[in-house]
Amino acid sequence: MSRDKETLWRKEGKAEVDQMVLEFTVGDDVFWDQRLVPFDCRASIAHVRMLATIDLLTPEEAAALESCLDEIVALEADGKFKVTADHEDCHTALELYLTEKLGALGKKVHVGRSRNDQVLTALRLYELAELDRLEDLVGRLSSSLEEACGRNGEIGLPGYTHMQPAMPSSVGLWLGCFRAALEDDLILLDAARRLINQNPLGTAAGFGVPVFELDRKMTAVDLGFARVQANPIYAQHSRGKFEGVVLHVASQIMYDLNRLASDLMLFTMREMAFVVLPEALCTGSSIMPQKRNPDVLELIRAKYHTVLGDETTIRHLSTNLISGYNRDVQLTKGPLMRGLDATARSLAMMARIVTDMEIDAERCRQAMGEELYATERAYRLVREGVPFRDAYRRVAEEARKK
User: Fold this and answer.
1) Which domains does the chain have, with CATH numbers?
2) φ and ψ of 158, to 5 deg
3) pLDDT in tens, 239-256
4) Catalytic annotation on 285?
């Protein structure tokens, strides 16, 4: 334990926590916490401004703290502010930096809050930013699909049921179904944003802050939250619940990418070759010189399952816990960030694939066999007055004779 950290966290007359315990409890949390540094600084600035309005800081003290927090944001952006295992988390790292720079003033930043509501607020801000990122990437993929439909939408394409040729379709109808799916994903994304857009800052360890009347509405406005998360115990309950909701949106997006990737792998097979991927988007084989493998599509298909696993992990970690804070939820950071990263990268990759792929119109035309029009022929007989079941049998019999 570092001397600075000991000054902040060690209680007088108490034995130091065993080093093995410290390492075990920190785990890989510092790796994930590095991403939270700018969000924690943003929340700390709002907190400092609020403390000044209720006379727990002077305007000069608040300005000095805010300037130092801005300095941390700039350092972190340049890769010069590192959260280490000695810090345990980004919150301690921030406070140590403030204390080193500002002395006793740095120690005042923690009044009226706990590391519990600090991490809730930083995570909430991070999640809202990530939802914005996903919304942008979904929009880019949707635009790529729209452009692909504009180039090739009129080209006929077999429609399949049970993986057998069924009825006539088109490139536009096929790719259009994924645009429609993404529109629904945006509805889910907006619902998640509205749910988590609540300010937990000021709930402290889950039971509010005694003595001081914190202005939680002020920090909510300052941080851009739509409303205050009023019940402090529920603020703790929402950790894990909200992360699960965010990853549910991600898993639904990945579900659609999984289906599109599966189609593309099928349609790029030599036996079909409706779609051609450029060589730059394919990989090769270490033994077979002729291979052009759609590895990116296979990985997108697989990442649906990893994101779904991350969602499931979060849901399991945050259930069966008693009311209030439990350390179990620390382990939700990794699955949350991994799942969001995988979804963002998959969306970007799929947009590139859809933009660069080519549709082989001639192969599509050759695949439009006569059997695809069987239902149409039966319906034409119905228009002539033949009962549908009789028309169905007549067309089926004709198909058997060919």
Assistant:
1) 3-111 (1.10.275.10), 122-367 (1.20.200.10), 370-401 (no CATH)
2) -65, 140
3) 999 999 999 999 999 999
4) yes
